[in-house]
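Contributing: when you submit paired examples, paste them exactly as shown. First protein:
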Amino acid sequence: MMLEPLVPAILSVRRIPDAAEALLIAYGADPTRHRSLGLITCDQDDALYVALDEATKHAGVDVVFARSFYAGAAHGSGPLSGEILGVIAGPDPEEVDEGLRAVIRCLENDACFYAANDKGDIAVFPHVITSLGRYLSALAGLQPGDSMAYLVAPPMEGTIALDAALKAADVRAVKVFPPPSETNFTAAWLTGSLGDCEVAAMAYAETVMAVGRNPRER
């Protein structure tokens, strides 16, 4: 199985060393613990969610805001908007800088969508997180360090593929996001051993490609 990576485009990265209290509160930070904010936008929301989680493993920061924009990156409100705004908060600019570096490393070298057909107009996100950080583990109801398959695809492909993934390995669904999401995809988070998460993710990707090749099979 060969999948062509679609590397996320990082559109903006900025830091506010000493954020105003009203801004901290508005974006979910705690002024008693957080002073500095780091903001980033890119054109792949799910890749950034994974990268923000990665930041919590490398720096004393919290993910205080992460929100996908409606209709996807192709319909952004401006050239720097992309598909998502992520915000991390920390006690000082140095911790925020370290967190942002971890986010960027993950986006450049790890988390990304893949082209699931020759035309490149079907995308799949069959990502396996070896060890969850504090952000996604809390959202998933899991523990930091647990493994998780983070699976995303268009509605038809993703629905059929989720069924295949759940049957391919000893995994359980901790969250299923039926379509439409803000970006009109569907998603699921599965957990199990690292090996089972990897098997499930591979079955998911293979099924997305199979549905794309033969969308009207009975």
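Second protein:
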Amino acid sequence: MASPMETLTMSRKEIDRYGIISRLLKKEINGTTASKLLSLSTRHVRRLKSAVRKEGVKGLIHGNRGKPSNNHVPEKEKKKIIALLHKKYPDFGPTFAGEKLSENHSITRDPKTIRDIQIAEGLWTPRKRKKRGEYREWRARKECFGEMLQFDGSYENWLEGRDGTTEQCLLATIDDATGTVVHALFSKHEGVLPVMGFWREYILAYGKPRSIYLDKFSTYKVNHKIASENPDVKTQFQRACNQVSIQPIFANSPQAKGRIERLFRTFQDRLIKELRLANIRTAHDANRFLRETFLPKFNAKFSVQPVSHANLHCMLTAEEKKNLASIFSRHTPRTVQNDFTLSFNNQWYQIVETRGVAVRKKDVVMVEEHTDNTIHICVRGKELNYTTLPARPKKTKNVQWVLAKDVVHTPHKPTGNHPWRLQIRANIERKNFNKIKQRILIHS
């Protein structure tokens, strides 16, 4: 029993329970009624009744109240965690910080515990809940690996200036069915040639996916009004996809391709810090780190099992494999000049004789910029030989022009047997003959 001077702190629920149990002890109600009123089992009501009979109101208060938890972090360990968080992981999120503490320092604690410590130390600010926005219908994952890949590029200071730049572009693709980041690559920008090189590497390694889900960035889709009026207007990327039978699908909002958008948010949290811990300083080393270290661990942790174990990637045909470098390149038409030269990107090229290929003046040829920065000139599917000219051939200067008034024109006089004269004579003779003929008919 509690002493008369002892002060006890009770919750509303405990006060309510004490009132019901008191009535049960006074036999005003029975155990069944008490269990219904308290929404407890009759067995638990008997326990509470026995505790109140022995200890009074104190029997309803939990015995561990006011005592430290059995799972609390010892003060020594807590100080060590705080020191590590401040020194090595000041901008890490609770989950990622917990993983690194376990991986590098053998300190295994629940992320919620790490979160409470970070909040207390001012290293983490809880995020505000977002207001409910536009309703969007949930879409189920695709069933098979390779059925659809989501692709995008993200500009960020991934190396935090260690390479002397302030921004790099990370190109990445994630499989919709498994959530596996199949391929990722650091590039200078999200232009035509880097994207072409990305997908050429992907197809050589894994085969052709059924479809690619991406946004309407100008590299992938022509957004001008003329494109909607003319379906034949395509980007270089659409042309390449069409040649290898890959279907590009264009999202109307970022939320539609949310898997790749969330991936980049995760990468901006985890990958930047992993690159920092590994002291990566160049894009070349970052790509190797992605391929050999980061992506295998990331996929092992976050990828899921697909509904079907079928792999829908298609292997390249012999013809596609032969022409893959040409397919995934930038194609630009040019017209051959009368001297068999052409201009491209402020550079002049001289077409030279190529065995088995006939080129005529004013022919339209295709200039291909390959991902290795080489130039190839093709016509009717065959490659032409060429040489690079140092400059455009200059026109001859100081030409002596003759004024028209100084020129004496001598009329040309046809000979007597010239076809023009013979024809004129024949016409005159025919007219004279017809006149004579009419006169004879009149007099007769």
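If you have annotations for the second protein, write them as plain sentences, like these:
DSSP finds 14 helices and twelve strands in the chain.
The chain has four domains: 12-60, 75-121, 149-302, 329-406.
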